[in-house]
Amino acid sequence: MSEEWQFQVRINLDETRSETARRDQNDPSLAPLGEILVKHNATLSCQYDAFAGYCEQAEKEGIDKYPLYQWTKDTIDNPVKKAKYLKAFTLYVDGDEVYDGEKAHPLEADLKPLLDSKLLDKLSKHDTNPDNNPQPPKKYRQ
Fold first, then answer.
1. What pTM was estimated for this model as a whole?
2. DSSP 57-91
């Protein structure tokens, strides 16, 4: 993997913790996670909330200006996918959705012990290489 790519760290929480994190990422029950977020100047963004916000914005401004609208709308309207994305969080660092490896790699390393403690259900790091990212299914391409 080339260092020319930027990265994004994502986590999954169980249902109870995800509800808590959506309300207040600084809740005491999430303290070990909160300490890591502060250390890396990171914040959580629930993927379901981000998808819903994208659809809401598209509906206000005109869905023709938002090429991923229908795919995103179908995703959040699907009960199985909704449940999945309510537990999934993107970590923003310094307000950025994607960031250099010098920020992503240490963040990922600091989060790994939270998997063992069962605070996190899943931890992943994604790069911006288009070959490594899902593309809209054919029916959603314009």
1. 0.91
2. HHHHH-GGG-TTHHHHHHHHHSHHHHHHHHSEEEE
What is the distance of C-alpha 75 from the center of its chain? 15
> Rounded to whole angstroms, how far apart are CA atoms 5 and 128?
6
- Enumerate long-range contacts of 93-97, CB under 8 Å, 24 or more apart: 93/9, 93/40, 93/41, 93/42, 94/41, 95/43, 97/8, 97/45
Nearest residue to 98 (alpha-carbon basis) of 75, 71, 132: 132
Q: Which residue has the tokens 């029950």?
A: 29
Mean pLDDT rounded to a whole number for the chain: 94
Residue for token pair 């986590």: 11
Sheet with 122-127, edge to edge strand ranges: 42-46, 88-93, 7-12, 122-127
